[in-house]
Structure formats: structure tokens, C-alpha cells
């Protein structure tokens, strides 16, 4: 432990982490699944790098960010300090940010259009010595600004990602439940898309779904990864 780190924040994160892990375990039990089947991703957007370091010290080394500028700065700070963290990028990604993201992200979960596939593939070729794991984000509603490919266009986008191999490696799907909708209904539809993809591409078995308010529904419908922010870190903070 860094002696300069406030003990109250560490204690808060210890409690929150235990609580979230209990929720996941209980959801798995209710769904007849093993807790080993579901991984927690800590969404650390707007929280400082010191929180990410604390989480890593507590054993939570998989974290997610949704803005490149914030993510790149945290990744650089933690790498300089020798902190080993596995970074997922989960936000909407502009093509001109691809070169930055591929330098630190282990997984990009928000691939939703052919132009982004092309940009990420080119960025990997120029700036990375290993493949980039990607998930295709599927839209579960038609709300603008939330990202995701329309289900009808999913097969074509799968073809695009596969064609970008070995630079890109398709690992599965990601989705966000519609605002105000029934997450069980939405994640039920997502499970159908995931089953189709696994039948076609058995290695694309990741299903990233569920957040603080709906992780139980996501687990019921087969999520392998849940993305928890406020339930783990508290109310959103403002950096700077």
C-alpha cells in the first residue's frame, strides 16, 4: 500500500468490490451458472489513476474506459508506475482515435461500423506488434448516439472483422440495454445474436453486457463479462 493513499478510499473500494462480486455470484447461482463464467470489468471513466491503481492492488486488473484522451493518460501513468492493468475501450470510437487506442487497449468492445474496422486494422499494422481483440457492439434499440450496429447489418460486419485478421481478432459481442426498457427482453435478443455468432465463430464467445443496474439480467442471458462503474467506484467524479 502506498502510505500516501487515503485509507478511507481503499476501504471503500474493498467493500464495493466485495459487494459487486457477491451480486455476480448470487446472479450466477440464480441462473444455474458458475461464478467462474462471469468476469467483472471495472469502468473507471472520470475516476483518477490512483483508483485504478488501488483496484489493481486489490486484484481487479481489468478496467474499462470510454474516452481516449482520459484512457491514454491513465494508461501511460500506470505503465510508468509499473502497474499491470488490462484495458478495455468501451465507448464510441472515432476513426481518428484508432492510432491512439491501439497503443494501450487490450480489447476494443465498441466496433460498430466498417470504417472503424478499417481504421483499427491500419492502426494495428502501424503501431502494434500483436493482434487487437475486438467485440462488435450490437444496437438493442434505435436510439441515436449510443453506438452499435443494427442487427440486420451484423453478419456483414462480422465478415469485415474476420477479413481484417490477423490484425483484428473477433472475440464476441457487446451491448447496452435500452434506456427505460426491460433489460431481460433486450438481453434475451442479444443472447440470440451471441448464439448465432458462436455457432459461426466458436472462438467469438465473449458476451459483454450488463452494468450496475442490470447485471443480474445480463447474467441470466449468458453474459460472460459485466461492466460496473458506479456500483464499484461510486458517483461519477470530475477529473482535473
TrEMBL record:
Under the heading InterPro entries, the entry gives: PLP-binding_barrel (IPR029066), PyrdxlP_homeostasis (IPR011078)
Q: Which sequence ranges form a coiled-coil region, renumbered to this chain?
A: none
Instruction: Please name the source species.
Output: Actinocatenispora comari
Which keywords are on file for this protein?
Answer: Pyridoxal phosphate
List, in alphabetical order, the Gene Ontology terms for molecular function in this entry. pyridoxal phosphate binding
Reported cofactor(s): pyridoxal 5'-phosphate
Function comment: Pyridoxal 5'-phosphate (PLP)-binding protein, which is involved in PLP homeostasis.
Where in this protein does the record say N6-(pyridoxal phosphate)lysine is found?
Answer: 45
User: Can you say what this protein is called?
Assistant: Pyridoxal phosphate homeostasis protein
For this chain, the family text in UniProt reads:
Belongs to the pyridoxal phosphate-binding protein YggS/PROSC family.
* Annotated SUPFAM superfamilies: PLP-binding barrel
